[in-house]
Design goal:
By secondary structure, this protein is mostly helical. The chain has one domain: Tetracycline Repressor, domain 2 (Orthogonal Bundle). It is built from 9 helices and no strands. The C terminus is likely disordered. It comes from Actinacidiphila glaucinigra.
Length: 197
């Protein structure tokens, strides 16, 4: 790859990364092309060298935002080798994650948009949901695969829902309570042993 091609690829990647962060912070309707290009240190006129349209950029940036979280989820599950699911829950339902949506899980900010979005966005969202379910299932360590899949679905739904609500409420104490309560209940489920029938 020549120098100009490498520079073009680098500029394109920079715009995509900025757009992915802004999507996680603001959703897909807010970041304008001019703002994104300015933040990347590029001219608005150079936009079409990299993307065919704003929709093209937003679609690619949304897919990147969704995929970015996968490594963080895997790292969170590895933090506690004895109880990887608890480590994942604690990392996801943390004040740090809540307070940094620009680097957080895009499932939270893109859920409603994906539900109304085009097929490509829905597919990217679904792909990430399936990968997270797999990570959560693996972190559960064994057991019946059908039960593990169902538990992973409940866990992921609770994680995403609690994070969304904790960011949306006005009272910081109530927000903290939501995170702590849902985390506690999810971790309690790990220790719950079903009664004999």
């Amino acid at each position: 790859m020549g120098h100009s091609q490498a520079a073009k690829a680098e500029s394109r990647e920079k715009v995509l990364r900025i757009a992915a962060r802004r999507i996680r912070e603001e959703g897909m309707t807010r970041p304008g092309v001019a703002d994104l290009m300015k933040e990347a240190g590029l001219t608005h006129g150079g936009f079409y060298k990299h993307f065919s349209s704003r929709e093209d950029l937003m679609g690619q940036a949304a897919a990147l935002a969704l995929a970015d979280g996968e490594g963080k989820m895997a790292d969170a599950a590895r933090r506690d080798p004895v109880a990887p699911r608890s480590g994942l829950i604690d990392a996801y339902l943390s004040a740090r994650h809540r307070d940094a949506p620009g680097t957080g899980c895009a499932l939270v900010t893109l859920g409603a948009t994906a539900g109304r979005g085009d097929e490509a966005l829905k597919e990217a969202y679904e792909q990430q949901v399936r990968k997270y379910l797999e990570l959560i299932g693996e972190a559960a360590q064994g057991g019946d695969p059908e039960v593990a899949q169902a538990d992973a679905m409940v866990t992921l739904s609770a994680l995403v829902g609690a994070m969304l609500i904790s960011r949306a409420v006005a009272d910081p104490g109530f927000s903290d309570e939501i995170l702590a309560t849902v985390a506690g209940r999810l971790k309690d489920a790990d220790t719950h042993v079903p009664a004999e029938v």
